[in-house]
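User: I'll paste a sequence; please echo it back and then give the predicted structure.

Assistant: Echoing your sequence first, then the prediction.
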Amino acid sequence: MQEAAVAKNTYTETENIIEIKDLRKVYKVGSESVVALNNINITIKRGEICCFLGTSGSGKSTLLNMMAGLERPTKGTIRIAGWDIDKLSEKKLAIFRQNHIGFIFQSYNLMPFSTALENVAMPLIFRGVSRRKRTQMAKEMLIAVGLEDRMLHKPSEMSGGQQQRVGIARAFVARPEIIFADEPTGNLDSRTSTEIMNMIVDMAAKHNQTLIIVTHDMNVAKYAHRIFHMLDGDIEKIEECI
């Protein structure tokens, strides 16, 4: 944990990059209404590391989906990086994600028949980066995560930890303002989990990127500046970790 604490201390108070007001999400299940999020109000600053912690069904994944523009709110507003994403069309939401968001997934979500290099370069295609430039950027990111000898390997030829490093490189390659990490160590052993979390936190701190972690694991949550404890669609408490 000591390495993570050093990285976290680089955070300084700056402007809000995420502002969520009166956010509510209700799902219809048959004749029943299930409240997934109930009147969420939060702000997150640029460069801050925040964790949404809770058990399955607490609403943390729904909240991440709302912030990423993957689901529409029933009520409330979500403003991220200057975009009112609750008001955007699907086409503009895609542009928003391409330009501002990086994702790290529990199950890696790599393209199985593509090499590590091709997987990392993929987000740059949507930004219109030339083939030569995106190949160079992808190589630099794979070197940064310690996979210089795995660039031409496919996911099936790599361990879980190596696949997650490819996922990290892919998330960071385009230098997005915000990284969403959804249970980023859920499929990893404890030693590899520590290595991966230190890597994610250090990379976000280096470029003052905002990091949003969703997890049920308190050991992962402790890497954050603030922990939002979630229960039954509400933020039960906010814990300061600095």
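The first helix runs from residue 2 to 8. The domain at 2-240 is CATH 3.40.50.300 (Rossmann fold).
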